[in-house]
Every structure is written in structure tokens, then in C-alpha cells.
Design brief:
The complex is a heterotrimer of chains A (101), B (487) and C (634). The mean pLDDT of chain A is 91. Helix content of chain A is 74%, strand content 0%. The radius of gyration of chain A is 17 Å and the shape is elongated. Chain A is built from three helices and no strands. Chain B has 487 residues and is mainly alpha-helical. Chain B contains 20 helices and two strands. Chain B has a two-stranded antiparallel ribbon with strand order 1-2. In chain B, helix 1 packs antiparallel against helix 4. Chain B is globular and about 70 Å long. In chain C, helix 3 runs antiparallel to helix 21 and helix 13 packs across helix 25. Chain C is elongated, with a radius of gyration of 32 Å. In chain C, 56% of the residues are buried. About 2% of the residues of chain C have low confidence. The chains are: A mainly alpha (101), B mainly alpha (487), C mainly alpha (634). At the B-C interface, helix 6, helix 11, helix 13, helix 16 and helix 17 of B face strand 1, helix 5, helix 6 and helix 26 of C.
């Protein structure tokens, strides 16, 4: 298995995540898609650090940190979504567009 | 000349006045007004001392002050007087003190008003005395920005519109001046903003031809250059009395002074190349302003357009680049400043008492308020160029200068004197002669205290009208030196 | 300062001091104001009398100057005093008539609320007029020229609360300024050419040895004449003078007959050497003055207001003065100016007595109010009229004779014939005025009927001090009309030009023809107006078309109203529209455009998170692709 196949998988995951981020209306669905993108980045990091005689352990450490970051970010995001739902009774992103020009 | 730095002292007068006004609590309006008046008299006294120390025969700038400010960029604290800015400093002091006295009946937000007014005057003094390009523009902004608040808060007809329009136009002017100034700074390559040194550099011809219009139009906007003058009548009408006095009387002269001190002195070839165009524009100012004034029904609009017309005479005098023209232009700056201050002061009293400026509603005022009417009539006659008042000599010198270089334009401008008299006499007859058009409330004639500032202005107009050499002996040597340097 | 120079300065300074004092401090003290003004004129009269006596040698002048204005090329403009016998005599005439009018005004204007202001303005006028006469520099003349115009404005509009005087004052000021603009241009050209405008320098430069080309002299002469035409109400600029009669009668007597309007004539006399170098211009002036003289004579023939008759007559006589000067004789023109000042002021003041008594200017109304009871008025009116008509031995005869003789010598037959016709018309309209006003005895009054009878019949009161003041001035001037005629020779000797040709009682062909025409005019007036049972309607008044044409200033005012006034108003409205709609519209449009553009750009910020993300991602992707193709960061 070459590194390329890992990169390909990561790219697919990133694409799916990006599509979901842009297409889904629910904030929670956007969060899930964002997590997918983050996972794709983790795969990329792990794969690329094994290239050309490198150790690969740095990549794995980064991936673990990213897991923690993702968890923290999900916690904050979900709390924000709860607050928004309490204020606006909706989490449909098309209705949450007041910060306009 | 060592000793007390008189120019900085002059500048400190309104600064200290501002500090005093800010410190006095707002619930003592009379103390605030007294502080402002005191500042004004102090400024007049300092100007008188400067005048006494000034030697017209000596060449160059006098009472020069140097101080470090930002040496790495070449910005200095650099002031000086010569025959051209000394009368303008005197003009500012006179209009300032009479303006304060005219507003003595103000009730609303007295503290803020006089604070902004002294700030404005600080800016004006700073511009006139500064010989450093940076500080010139800096004080220019200090003078322009308080205008917005002064008009928007204390003004009358369409004040928000007038204030915004005025400020935007003047900032547009600055937007033209600042790049041009920086261009000069870099082209000179001396790492200095000192105007005297910048003027000594010989810039390339193309550079001058391109940069001069920026300076001329940028400063010209403030001077009421056609067709960018429309902020002026609207702004004057909207502004409260003393602000109109300062604005038309002094601020518009900042623009002409900028053209003279920066445009013409630093870029003489550019000025020479564009002189014919600027003369034509100035002539349009004169004729157009007069015709529009003829069709106005609001007294302040008449005065506003008459200011546009008279500033055209200043611009024409500058365009001739001759001794007579520059003498006349500087003299007209002073004379028109006093005259228009008197105009606005006179109208201010009428508006305060009758609550209208419409000549369709006023009429026969000379019968009810003869002294107040007399002030207006004197101002109107001065504007019409009647001898015995100072404007006659100023306009005469400009005509003389223009006749040599632009005979056709000069003839048109002399013929336009008929229109000038027409609109002046029209408002006198409509507003002050005849019977009242509407029932007027009983209004007492102007009190001696309020008449005092207006009488001071009349006295200045008469004294210079009878003996113009009083001011011309100061201006003439400087004008001759300037013209010598131009060629 | 030598004696004469001091006198010249004093003659100006005294009225100026009085004017400033009155207008600033004495508004509430009418008697003090009147006294001060009169006193200043007494001083001026003394000073000018001294000048007349001392400055006796012709063609020699006194000059004293001081620099007034720095000017680019050449020496600074100098102002000062310049007088020779011409100026000295004129200044004496001005001072004398002004003093007479002031004394008269003590009676005429008594009780007027603006009494102090009136005397202040009269003092202003006296200062300005004397300054004009004694000025050394043409620019200085211009300054005082405008100042007398200002005084005229203030005095015509003295009763400013009424609309007619206010409108008349405005008209006078504007029309004279049209002329003054030409004058100013001429003076500017002179200063440009010479570096100065001193009268002696200007005259010398135009002379045969001078530096001016004939074309330049002609141009400047035409421009200067514009001022003369405006000030002396000739040609196209005459219509302000009849309207100026809205001012108080003493003002009409002083400014608009004897002195201010004569300033134009004085200028031509003063610059005689200059104008002599532009003969075509002088020829034009002659014909312009002649046409004006005849036209205004016809207007006088149908006027109903006594002051308007006198106003038209003034314009007509000014025409005669200018004709004489244009034909080349300073003496004749100036002689006529002097006698005219005397008898025209007299006529106005006499008419003022009637106006005061009858409370009306209308001659037919005056006739119903026992005019013959005003004996001084009658004496004044009759003697003044005899002088105006040119009946020997009154002063007007001699001066008019001098004018006609000059025309005969230099102007050609056509002009002379028309001038004689004018003399006949003058006699006719003058005595029409006399007969209409005082001609009918008790029978005539009854015949005239109820015209104005119902309107407050003038109550006879015992003559008070004011009436006595008026009467005494009128009587003094009446005597003068008998005496002044004999001055011709003296004047000629003083002025040094050719004097009045023949002695006072030499009667050659010319004078006889003139006297015959005058007699014919008076006779016709008597037939139509004076005798018992006369119809009191003149031949011109019977033809309605003529009456309307003559009575309405030959429709000149209507012409101006339809053209110049209309065009001026249209231009000003167009300018206002342009300023408001085009220029303001453009700047307001720029502002709205900026706001509109801002709103469009603001749509990018839709508040739509996903749009932001999409844009950000695509930009970063593009950046990444670009970097990869470049092979790394620069």
C-alpha cells in the first residue's frame, strides 16, 4: 500500500466532508461534515509523515492531538448550537444570517 | 529675533482658551462665554504686538520659530510671518473675537459650542503661521473637522445635509492635497517638510504640470472654486451665525492661502502653465456667483453666493501672478473676510428676532430696526465695490492686474460689477426698504452690546476704505518678492 | 501746505467731518445735525470762495499729492488736490448751491422723522462732490463719482418706507453703474498705460507730443464717456433721472439738476485736452446730446408732474452743455452749467414751495390751491422760467447764446438748426409749466373745477420760520438769475479759452433768431394755457399717440424691461437652476451612487456562513495550485 492510496482516501473523505459542510442546512450536520474533514486531515498527516525515511511517530502524535482538538471543538460547537436553538428555535443555517452588510 | 515666541504664543491663546472652557463646568455658561471672549481679545493683543514688531521692509519671513518634532521624517515645528499671512492672522483674530461676541446669547450646549469654536480657530491660526507642510495639512484638518459638529448641532436650515456636504467636499479637497504634498516631499528628496526648502527645489516640468492641478483643485474646493463650490452656500445657510462668519470669513481664505503658499510658491511652472485655465474658472466664479445670487430669496443664500463670487476675485488675482493681482488678492482676502463676517452677523440678528430670512416675508426692516439694518446695508455696499469701503481698492488692484494678462476676462469681470450691484441693491430694497410684507413681531433694535462686534467690523472696513495703505504697505513687499520668485 | 491747498482740503474735510459726526452720533438730535451740516458748508463756501479769488490765472493749476496705492509698474498712484480756475469756480458753485439747499431744507424738511439722517447724507454728498471737483487723479475722480452715486441712492430713497422712492433709488444706482463700469475700464486702461492717472499726465499723453496712439485715445474717450452718459442722464441712460424725482425736492434741486448730474459735464470740461484728441468721439457726443435734448424737450411738453417737467428740462439743458463742449468751447459749456445750476435749483425750490403748500406735485392740482398766495414761489418760478427759456436779460439767455454761438461756429448748420428748435421747445414747455401752475387767476381756478379740491385743501397758515427759510433762498436765487448773465466775460478770462464772443447786449443775427423762437414758444404756451378761456391742453397732448409716446420716456423703459431686465432675470434663474439641479444634482448623485454601490457590495456579506466558507476554500485551493505550479514560495 503506497502512501498515495492513503492520500486518496483522505481526499475522498475531505471531499465528502466539504460537500456536507456546504450543502447541509442543519448546524449539527455541518459539524459532522467538519469532523469528517478533520479526520481526512489526520489521515493525511499520518500518511505523509511516513514518506522518505521519516519516522511517522510525529504524524501519529499530531493525529492524537487533532482528536483532542476535535473533541473540544465539538463540545463548544454543540453548546453554541444549544444556545442558538434556545434563542432562535432553529438550527437551520439559512435562517441564521443576520451578520450581513 | 530671540525672546518670546510670539507665533506659538498666538497659537496658545485658543489652546489655553479651549482648556479653560473644558475645565469650566457646563452649568456656568456666562463664565464660558467670558473665557472665550477673553481668549479672543488676547489673540487680538498678540496679533497687535506681532504687527508692531513686523518690519515690512525686511525681506523673507520674520519672527521665525524652529523646533524639532519628528526629525527622522523631516517634520519640524516651523512658523513665520511675512506680508501675506500677517493680515490673515489679523483677520482671524478679529473675526474670532467678533464671532464670540455675536454668539453671546447662545443658550444651548454652550460649553461644547465654544470648545469646538476655539478648536477651529486653533486650526486656522496654525495653518496661517505654519511653514512646515505637515503641520499645514494637520492644522487644516483641525480647522475643518469641528465644522461638521458645529453645523450639525447648532445649525438651522437642513443642517445635517449641509454639515455632511461641507465636510465631505472639504475632505475630498484634502484627499487631493495630501498625495500631491507627499509627491512633492519625495520628489524633492530632502527628507524635509519645510516649505521654504521645498520651494527652493526645482522640480521637473512634467511633475509640476501634473501635480499643480491637484493642489489647485484640492485647495480650491475650500476656496469655493467653480464648479466645486456648491457646499459653500448650503453650508453657510445651515451654520449658526458665528460659524458662518468664521467659515466664509476665514476658512475659505485657507484655500486661497494654500494655493498661494504651497501651490504657486513650490510649483511655479505648474502655476504658470495652468494660469489661464484657473483665470477662466475664477471668472466663471465671479459672473456665475453674481447671477445666482440675483435669484435668491433667502438672505443667507445671497451672501453665500456673493462669497463664491468674491472669492473668484481672489482666485483671479492669484491667477495673474502679478504684483497688482497678488496685492489685490491678499487684500481682498482680508477685506472680504471682514465684510462677510459683518454680513452674517447682521443677518444673524435679524434671523434671531424675526425667525425668517426670506425676503418675501421680510421688508421695511430699516424702519423697525434701523441700526441692525444699517449694518447689513454697509456690508452690501462694501460687497458691491462702493468706494469708501476696503473692497473697492482690493477689487481695483485685481482688475488692474488682470487687465494686463487677461484683458478679455478683465473686461467681463468689470462688466459683472453691474450684476453685483444689482443683487446687492435688490436685497436692500426687498428686505429693508418699502413696507413690511408680513406682520412683524415687535422687535427692539440691536442693543449696544450686540452692536459692538458689528461696529468693530464696520470700522475696519471704513478705515481701510479710506486709507488702504495701512494694509497694502505690509502686503506689497511680500507680493513683490513672491512675484520675483515666480519668474 | 500752502494756503490754496489747505483751503481745498478744508472744503472737503469739513463736510466729511460733519457727515461722520451726524451719522454716527447725532441721529437723535436733528437740530444739532442740521446746524453742524450747515456750518460745515459755510466753511466749505468760504474755502472755495478763497480759491476762486486766489486761483485766478488761466491754464495754471495747483497740485498737491500723496501716494495712495502701490501699483506694479511705475510710481504709486497718487491722490491729492488739483485745481485751476475751472475747478475753483465749480467748487464754489457746488458749495453755494449746497448751502442754499441746506438752508431751504431747514424749512422744507421740518418735522420729518429722518431730519438728522437727511443732513448727514447731504453732508456726505457735499464731501463727495467737492472731492470729485478738486481731485487730482482720474481714479480719485472715479472714487468720488461713485460716492456721489451712493449719496444719490441714499437721498432718492430717503423716504424708503414707500416703494416708489425705493425703486427709483435702485434704478438710479444701477443705471449710473452701467455707465460707471465704462468709466472704470477707461481709467484702468490709463493706469495700465501710464502707471498713473493724474489728470495733467493723462491730458498731456493724449496731446500731439504724447505717447497715446489715436486709437487708444478714442477707446478710452468712449469708455470715459459711458460714465458721463450715465451720470448726466444722456442717451440710452436717461430714464433714471425723471424717476429720481421721488426724492425730496431739495435733493432734486441739488443733486439732480445743479451739481451731481453736472459732474459729467464737468468731467468733459476737465479733460477737454484729452477729448480734443478724439474728434470723432466728440462728434458722436454732439449728436447724442442733441438728440437727447430734443427728445426730452418733447417729454417735458406732456408731463403733468411739475418736477418731472423740470427733470426732463435738466436732461435737455445738460445736452446743451455737452453740445457746447463737444463743439469745442469749454467756456460756453461751463458758463451754461453755472447759470443752469442757479436757475434750475431755483426752479426746483420754487416748485417745492408750491408742492409743500398744495401737498401734490400735479400742476393742475397746485393750480387749484391758490398758488399765487405763495409770492416767493411765484417770483422764483417766473424768474427761473425766464432764465431757462433764455429771455434777455436773464442769465439763461447769455449762456444759451454762448452755446448756440459755439455750435454755429463749429458744428454745422443741421445741428445748429436743431439746437434752435430745441430752444423754442424749451420756452414752450417752460411757460406751459408756468401758466398751468400760476397762470390762472380766480377765474381759472373755478374753471379747472374739482380736481383735487376734495383732497385736503391746503390750509393757509401764518408763514413760519421754515417758510421764511424757503422763501429767502428762492428770492436770493431769483436775484442771481438777473446777475449771473454778466459773468460770461469774467469766466472766459479766467478759463483762458475763447471767451463769450460778444458783449451782453450785442444783438447779431443769431441772438435775434433765438429770441424770436423763444418768443414764439412763449406765445404758443400762452395761447394754449395762459390766456383767459384757454383749453389748457397742449398740441402734443391732443394727439393721444404722441402724448403716450412722449409721456412714457419714448418707451425706452419698456424696451429695457422687455430686453435687458428680462434677459438678466432669465440668466439669473438659469444660473440658479444650473447650480441647484446640475451641480448639486451631480454631487448628490455621486453621493447616492456611492451609497448604491456600497449596498451592492454589501450583498457579498450575506451573513451566510456557507458562502463565506466556499469562497475561502476556493481561494485557498487556487492559491495552493498556483504555489505548486510555481514550485514553492518565492
Amino acid at each position: 500500500m503506497t502512501v498515495a492510496s492513503y492520500l486518496f482516501v483522505a481526499a475522498c473523505l475531505f471531499g465528502i466532508g466539504l460537500y456536507g459542510l456546504l450543502q447541509r442546512r442543519s448546524l449539527v450536520a455541518m459539524l459532522i461534515a467538519l469532523e469528517l474533514m478533520l479526520a481526512a486531515v489526520s489521515i493525511n498527516v499520518v500518511a505523509l509523515t511516513t514518506l522518505a525515511g521519516r519516522d511517522g511517530s510525529l504524524g501519529q502524535v499530531v493525529a492524537l492531538i487533532l482528536v483532542g482538538v476535535a473533541a473540544a471543538e465539538a463540545a463548544i460547537a454543540l453548546s453554541l448550537f444549544v444556545a442558538i436553538h434556545r434563542a432562535r428555535h432553529t438550527i437551520d443555517v439559512e435562517q441564521l444570517s443576520e451578520l450581513t452588510g | 529675533m530671540t525672546g518670546v515666541p510670539l507665533l506659538t504664543l498666538l497659537l496658545l491663546c485658543p489652546v489655553l482658551g479651549l482648556a479653560a472652557i473644558l475645565l469650566i463646568p457646563g452649568r456656568y455658561p456666562r463664565a464660558i462665554k467670558r473665557a472665550a471672549a477673553l481668549t479672543g481679545w488676547a489673540a487680538c493683543a498678540v496679533v497687535a504686538v506681532i504687527y508692531a514688531r513686523f518690519d515690512p521692509a525686511a525681506a523673507g519671513y520674520q519672527l521665525v520659530e524652529h523646533g524639532r518634532w519628528i526629525p527622522s521624517v523631516g517634520i519640524e515645528w516651523h512658523n513665520g510671518v511675512d506680508g501675506i499671512n500677517l493680515p490673515l492672522l489679523a483677520l482671524t483674530a478679529i473675526v474670532f473675537v467678533t464671532g464670540v461676541l455675536v454668539m453671546y446669547e447662545l443658550q444651548e450646549r454652550v460649553k461644547e459650542y465654544f470648545a469646538f469654536m476655539t478648536l477651529l480657530v486653533t486650526g486656522v491660526f496654525g495653518v496661517f503661521m505654519s511653514l512646515d507642510l505637515f503641520f499645514f495639512v494637520f492644522f487644516y484638518e483641525v480647522a475643518v473637522l469641528p465644522m461638521y459638529l458645529l453645523i450639525a448641532v447648532w445649525g438651522s436650515t437642513r443642517k445635517e445635509y449641509g454639515a455632511m456636504k461641507l465636510t465631505l467636499y472639504l475632505l475630498a479637497g484634502t484627499a487631493l492635497v495630501v498625495p500631491a504634498g507627499l509627491a512633492v516631499y519625495w520628489a524633492a528628496g530632502l527628507n524635509t517638510f519645510d516649505l521654504t526648502r521645498l520651494a527652493a527645489v526645482h522640480y521637473g516640468r512634467t511633475f509640476q504640470l501634473v501635480v499643480y492641478p491637484f493642489l489647485f483643485i484640492g485647495f480650491g474646493i475650500l476656496a469655493g472654486l467653480w464648479p466645486l463650490h456648491t457646499w459653500s452656500p448650503v453650508g453657510h445657510v445651515a451654520a449658526p451665525t458665528a460659524v458662518s462668519m468664521l467659515h466664509a470669513g476665514v476658512l475659505m481664505k485657507l484655500g486661497a492661502y494654500g494655493i498661494l503658499r504651497i501651490g504657486m510658491t513650490v510649483l511655479p511652472e505648474g502655476a504658470a502653465y495652468w494660469a489661464h485655465t484657473t483665470a477662466v474658472l475664477a471668472t466663471i466664479n465671479i459672473v456665475y456667483g453674481a447671477f445666482v445670487a440675483l435669484a435668491q430669496t433667502d438672505l443667507k443664500f445671497v451672501i453665500g453666493f456673493s462669497s463664491v463670487s468674491h472669492m473668484g476675485i481672489v482666485l483671479l488675482g492669484l491667477s495673474t501672478r502679478s504684483v497688482d493681482g497678488i496685492n489685490g488678492a491678499v487684500f481682498q482676502m482680508f477685506s472680504h473676510g471682514i465684510m462677510t463676517a459683518l454680513f452674517f452677523a447682521a443677518v444673524g440678528y435679524i434671523y434671531d428676532r424675526y425667525h425668517t430670512r426670506d425676503v418675501g416675508k421680510l421688508g421695511g426692516l430699516s424702519r423697525y430696526v434701523p441700526v441692525a439694518s444699517a449694518f447689513f446695508i454697509v456690508a452690501a455696499l462694501t460687497g458691491a465695490g462702493v468706494p469708501g469701503f476696503s473692497s473697492f481698492w482690493a477689487e481695483l488692484l485685481v482688475f488692474l492686474g488682470a487687465l494686463k494678462t487677461y484683458p478679455v476676462l478683465a473686461t467681463i469681470v468689470v462688466l459683472a460689477l453691474v450684476i453685483t450691484l444689482a443683487y446687492s441693491v435688490r436685497v436692500i430694497v426687498l428686505g429693508f426698504f418699502g413696507g413690511p410684507r408680513e406682520a412683524h413681531p415687535h422687535v427692539a433694535d440691536i442693543s449696544p452690546f450686540l452692536a459692538l462686534p458689528r461696529a468693530i467690523l464696520v470700522a475696519v472696513l471704513l478705515i481701510l476704505g479710506f486709507y488702504p495703505r495701512l494694509i497694502l504697505d505690509v502686503i506689497d513687499p511680500a507680493a513683490r518678492a513672491l512675484v520675483g520668485a515666480l519668474s | 501746505m500752502s494756503g490754496p491747498v489747505l483751503a481745498a482740503v478744508l472744503a472737503q474735510a469739513a463736510p466729511l467731518a460733519a457727515c461722520l459726526t451726524i451719522l454716527i452720533g447725532l441721529r437723535a438730535r436733528p437740530r444739532a445735525a442740521a446746524g453742524l451740516a450747515t456750518l460745515s458748508l459755510v466753511v466749505a463756501l468760504g474755502a472755495t470762495a478763497y480759491l476762486v479769488v486766489v486761483v485766478a490765472v488761466p491754464n495754471v493749476h495747483w497740485v498737491a499729492q500723496t501716494t495712495w496705492l502701490p501699483v506694479a509698474d511705475g510710481p504709486a498712484l497718487a491722490f491729492g488736490v488739483f485745481f485751476d480756475p475751472l475747478a475753483a469756480t465749480m467748487s464754489f458753485v457746488v458749495a453755494f448751491i449746497t448751502l442754499a439747499v441746506m438752508v431751504y431744507s431747514l424749512g422744507y424738511m421740518a418735522g420729518d422723522p429722518g431730519f438728522a439722517r437727511y443732513f448727514g447724507f447731504l453732508a456726505l454728498f457735499a464731501w463727495a462732490m467737492l472731492g470729485l471737483v478738486l481731485a487730482s487723479n482720474l481714479l480719485q475722480v472715479l472714487v468720488f463719482w461713485e460716492l456721489v452715486g451712493l449719496a444719490s441712492f441714499l437721498l432718492i430713497g430717503f423716504w424708503f418706507e414707500q416703494s416708489a422712492p425705493a425703486a427709483a433709488a435702485r434704478k438710479a444706482f444701477l443705471m449710473t453703474r452701467v455707465g460707471d463700469v465704462g468709466f472704470l475700464l477707461g481709467v484702468l486702461l490709463l493706469v495700465r498705460a501710464l502707471g498713473n492717472a493724474t489728470i495733467s499726465d493723462v491730458v498731456a499723453a493724449a496731446g500731439p507730443a504724447g505717447v497715446f496712439s489715436p486709437r487708444f485715445t478714442t477707446t478710452v474717450a468712449l469708455l470715459l464717456l459711458m460714465g458721463v452718459i450715465g451720470k448726466s442722464a444722456q442717451g440710452p441712460l436717461f430714464t433714471w433721472l425723471p424717476d429720481a424725482m421721488e426724492g425730496p425736492t431739495p435733493v432734486s434741486a441739488l443733486l439732480h439738476s445743479a451739481t451731481m448730474v453736472a459732474a459729467g459735464v464737468f468731467l468733459v470740461a476737465r479733460l477737454h485736452g484729452f477729448f480734443a484728441a478724439a474728434p470723432e468721439v466728440m462728434r458722436g457726443l454732439l449728436w447724442l446730446a442733441l438728440v437727447t435734448a430734443l427728445a426730452t424737450a418733447t417729454m417735458a411738453m406732456v408731463a403733468e408732474d411739475i418736477k418731472r417737467v423740470l427733470a426732463y428740462s435738466t436732461i435737455s439743458q445738460l445736452g446743451y452743455m455737452l453740445m457746447a463742449l463737444a463743439a469745442g468751447s469749454v467756456t460756453a459749456g461751463f458758463f451754461h452749467l453755472t447759470t443752469h445750476a442757479g436757475f434750475k435749483a431755483l426752479l426746483f425750490m420754487a416748485s417745492g414751495i408750491f408742492i409743500h403748500h398744495a401737498h401734490s406735485n400735479d400742476m393742475r392740482v397746485i393750480a387749484t390751491k391758490q398758488p399765487r398766495s405763495q409770492r416767493a414761489g411765484v417770483i422764483g418760478l417766473v424768474s427761473g422760467s425766464l432764465a431757462l427759456a433764455g429771455v434777455i436779460p436773464f442769465s439763461g439767455y447769455f449762456s444759451k447764446e454762448a452755446v448756440l454761438t459755439t455750435l454755429g461756429q463749429h458744428a454745422g448748420t443741421a445741428a445748429l438748426a436743431l439746437a434752435y428748435l430745441g430752444a423754442g421747445l424749451t420756452a414752450y414747455y417752460t411757460f406751459r409749466m408756468v401758466f398751468l401752475t400760476v397762470g390762472q387767476g380766480a377765474a381759472g381756478r373755478r374753471a379747472v373745477g374739482a380736481v383735487g379740491d376734495a383732497v385736503g385743501s391746503g390750509q393757509d397758515h401764518a408763514p413760519n420760520a421754515g417758510d421764511r427759510a424757503m422763501a429767502s433762498v428762492v428770492l436770493v436765487l431769483s436775484v442771481l438769475t438777473l446777475v449771473l448773465g454778466y459773468l460770461g466775460g469774467w469766466l472766459g478770462a479766467r478759463l483762458g479759452h475763447e471767451g463769450v464772443e460778444h458783449g451782453p447786449f450785442a444783438l447779431g443775427a443769431g441772438p435775434l433768431v433765438a429770441l424770436a423762437l423763444v418768443a414764439a414758444g412763449i406765445a404758443l404756451a400762452w395761447v394754449e394755457f395762459g390766456r383767459r378761456g384757454a383749453a389748457r391742453a397742449g398740441f402734443a397732448e391732443r394727439v393721444p399717440a404722441l402724448r403716450d409716446f412722449f409721456g412714457d420716456n419714448w418707451y425706452v423703459d419698456r424696451l429695457y424691461g422687455a430686453t435687458l431686465v428680462r434677459w438678466g432675470t432669465a440668466l439669473s434663474r438659469a444660473a440658479r437652476w444650473h447650480d441647484h439641479t446640475v451641480l448639486d444634482g451631480a454631487s448628490d448623485g455621486v453621493a447616492s451612487g456611492a451609497v448604491w454601490g456600497g449596498r451592492i457590495l454589501a450583498r457579498v456579506q450575506a451573513g451566510y456562513v456557507q458562502a463565506y466558507v466556499a469562497v475561502a476554500i476556493s481561494l485557498i485551493a487556487a492559491l495552493g495550485v498556483w504555489l505548486v505550479r510555481r514550485g514553492g514560495l518565492p
